[in-house]
Amino acid sequence: MTPPRTSATQLTAAQSSTSALEPDPGWGRRKLIAILAAATTAALLMLTGLGYAIHFAITPAEQTTPAPGEGSQVSQPGGIRPTGTPAAGLSTDERRDRIAAAPMPPAAPADAQPAPPATELAEPITIPPATTAGPAMVPSGFPRTPEGAVAQLAAIETTVLQAMSIPVAHAVHDAWALPGGTGADDWSLTGHVRSFLGAARMGAEKDLRTVVMATPAAAQVKGTDGPDWVLACVLLEVRAVIESEARIGYGHCERMQWQPDTGDQTGTAGGRWMIAPGDPPAPAPSTWPGTEPAIAAGWQTWVDAEPAAAPGSHDPAATVPTDGAGAAEDRG
């Protein structure tokens, strides 16, 4: 069992109390109180900053979004992608803009906090594993399926958030976003990194004592438009440790588009999913994974698919003899 983490405030208070019991003409009562107050204030500021930092995406700015057009392939709360033909008379860009702009179920800021699990089980969504490392050290090699697009988006998100670095955010965006969309400076993930670093009073990168872990916990496919375009959404469990620890659920969506291999990047043989151009999608609900608000918002439980067996490999258990005949053949 992991021992409870001791905050800087507790350590400072304990040390100050011990010093107060020892006679020391250089450390009068007023000075001890002043030091303790300063340490307490610093710790509270750090915790407050961490709170703001870890809640960087809970309350997105209000925005007006048009309703999806009739026939648009937008998912329902259960994450199901309706079948059917795109809305007649709409161009490809118009169809995709409508899917991206369709509002998602709302979530209150408190819904992102750790909470008891729902008694209802969310539908699972099986996500394929990465098979290679792509540009900017982002895991890649996902299949040309909606679940592959979800997996690629999660790999992009976790790489950026765990690094908590403005240069890394720019490098990942430059390597994984197609031209015509939001630039690296205005990318929502870059904004989240900047908010975290600013609230934690750091520079362009998190310091070595700070740990950020982002783990995919749920996902949903909001919509599709043919086999090469997906509106993918991922719900991450984000954990940050700066003197103290805080955790939230963070939902994020992106337009994803399949890009054939051009031969100028490593780890992209056969093609890869990339962030597609267009205005950012409607905000995804940030809920704590597995809770009733998460299920109501359409999040499906993230299930890692079993890696495919390598060519020529075999399962030794599948060839274990069952009647002794195989053992006799081995001896012969």
Automatic annotation (TrEMBL):
Residues 1-20, 63-76 have a biased composition (Polar residues). Keywords: Membrane, Transmembrane, Transmembrane helix. The chain crosses the membrane at residues 32-54. Residues 1-26, 63-90, 259-292, 304-332 are annotated as: Disordered. It comes from the Bacteria. This is Uncharacterized protein.
